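Usage example:
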Amino acid sequence: MSIVVMKFGGSSVANPERIRRVARRVGEAQDEGHQVVVIVSAMGDTTDDLIMLSRELSARPSRREMDMLLSTGEQQSIALLAIALHEYGYKAISLTGLQAGYNTDGTYAVSRICNIDSSRVRKELDEGNIVVVAGFQGLSPNGDITTLGRGGSDTSAVAMAIELQADMCEIYTDVDGVYTADPRLVKSALKLNTISYDEMLEMAAMGAGVLHPRSVELAKQYGMTLHVRTSFDHRLGTIVQEVTDMNGELEKEMVVAGVAHDMSVLRATLFNVPDQPGLASTVFGRLAQDKVNVDMIIQGSKTSDDKQNLSFISARTDADKIEQALGEMVAGGLGEKFELDDSIAKVSVVGAGMISRPGVAAKTFEVISSLGINIDMISTSEIKISCIVPEADAAKAVRALHEAFLG
Amino acid sequence: MSIVVMKFGGSSVANPERIRRVARRVGEAQDEGHQVVVIVSAMGDTTDDLIMLSRELSARPSRREMDMLLSTGEQQSIALLAIALHEYGYKAISLTGLQAGYNTDGTYAVSRICNIDSSRVRKELDEGNIVVVAGFQGLSPNGDITTLGRGGSDTSAVAMAIELQADMCEIYTDVDGVYTADPRLVKSALKLNTISYDEMLEMAAMGAGVLHPRSVELAKQYGMTLHVRTSFDHRLGTIVQEVTDMNGELEKEMVVAGVAHDMSVLRATLFNVPDQPGLASTVFGRLAQDKVNVDMIIQGSKTSDDKQNLSFISARTDADKIEQALGEMVAGGLGEKFELDDSIAKVSVVGAGMISRPGVAAKTFEVISSLGINIDMISTSEIKISCIVPEADAAKAVRALHEAFLG
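Running the assembly step on the lines above writes:
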């Protein structure tokens, strides 16, 4: 019997009415003859509410205790969804991350999944149950609850789909697929029927958290097909898979798959650091230790013969950790001062086809410049060109680039 | 080093301010040189809110899923209390029921604790931690979360105190001890400095859930001293222990320790059941299977030569289960019909001294009768006389009995 893994985010289970809708949707999948595993996030604002509660007690609460606290959100969702499924006459059972067999590396707040012992999940499936699993959480080697950090629930779903050799991992969101640009910014944006893993990785930041890069990477690694779709109706969404067959018309025409933007970034700058070997490894080694992901880096804008500034782009959510790390470096004599700037945004042109079309980069810079927007940093890969621009200009840049490449 | 187990109920941790107060109180106990284990309930209305949420999805939600859902309440409290303790500079770690080693018999919603594997708790204590443990929950033999039902958190605390051979189990509530009657009903009620386990068992229903009989039974069985006190100030409360030394003045004077009442009972009646051997065992065997506790029973009010009515007193919270069980009995031909009446209350006169004073029962009935109140059922033990009266008359009866015996 084929296995389908379905993942529903927090807004899909935000209240009893929505939980019922998810239950009907999940039940239909079993009616169609699939064995069904459902991964759910915490209800709506539960996680934010719990974070606020903890902040009333401490500005810097222990990560272990935050994992203990936040993991209750998913545990509530799975119980409620199982109850709703029973009410529609389906056999269903909820499992926490621990019960579902997620073993993590034990890092609090940002754990990675090491492996899944799916024996309990398989047993419950074989007994005819719809298995409702808490996303975002797992068990550390020492028996503690750890959460998976950003993109955790998507990653839970993809990992379970891989472990169970599922036919498909369906990711239900409040948008109906992946678009050539954020439809809220660009009215003429089109929904993509398919997209490659690499393109999806680059587009991930587009829209309201459609799919976290981490889960896409995992799916790519094991060739798990993802289907990003809405829980509000039955339309097909966007299939994310390896593009092996290049005879599609889409590929021929679309050098550029989409224009993405990311307003959640900040630029950190360390001023007047010594221009000496090993600097980057010192700075970024320390940040890696703190699990801070660094995106673009600019090193080399000399301020004197032996001094330079060092800038990099990271997520705004890591601001506290970056401030701490850079503060300690400056206190230790590495650099004169530091600065965090969150008034910037990243705009990216993405497409697997651009590798053979060298003009894309030039056209991108031209479009942005023609709007009088200053490009602060540039980063390119085989399938993407990203520019850092002022946040206030980002929407304008996205619209112009979409018009130029996809209009 | 001496070990103290402290238990705080839901109202003591209802909001961040109260959690901070509990943290200071707990920290003081460690400062005084004790190893401290804290058992906490879910914050304030959390459990009720979760029950309401589940009722929006199902009138009769699965007990397994309700345990999954409700156990999140305590998990949130322990994390928040640990965070508050850290903020005051204390080493502290939270543990779920599972992590703290509570193994239950696996019955959902009304589990009993089979044993506690306290190795993790001891390890954390030895590392200098205040160990914050989720009450009310444990692990079933098949790896599921089960809750302990009414009085569960008190029982969690007493069981842990016994397992750790603690010096004392302190139960913090929003009243400052055990009174000779509910002070809300009887202005002249007095706080008792000490009370025996047996008296406490009979008085348990007095006041706002001061201590659940189940936890008192467990404490009595192992001779664990309990201290019922308030978390609002440092006054001593009431010590519950075996009374071995009978030289106290209190004992000499006080034949009656207190007057208790219980407004949470119902009377169930099965009409016109066959008057034949084995009836009681059929009816109460079935109710026992459903884990319904039955208090008083009246069997024998004949309605014809071979028929009789059968009445018993139970908790109102078991109404659904009783309705189900009696309904099936009537459908199966056992009795003509059944009725549940929750307009009644139980009033009890309690005192270890009354065993040697036969006049107490007569005086009790006389006081109630003189108020023109009809006594529906009577039950006596060596240390208590209980009368079922109309709920509307219960407060009046309590005041009059307190005046007669303790005024």
